[in-house]
Specification:
mainly alpha; flat
Length: about 80
Amino acid sequence: MAPKSKDTRIRLLEPLATEFAALRKVIGGGNTEIGVIRDAAHAYIQLRLKDKKFRTQYEAELAKLMATKKQPIRLVKTENEPNG
């Protein structure tokens, strides 16, 4: 059985929790649980992007999400600025 996770975000059930613990032990190098999960998610995305239909849908959705992150810059005058 896998040791209890120190990261409360990770809620893996058995047998995946034990498999994940074994993977981290073999990888070594102080890899954190969340670091391994991030690497796995990135690798999974890259694998799926080989499918053209998936890539098209993914890139459209990614563009929508990235557009919502952009905020217009708001300029505010300070007292020291001359009127103009």
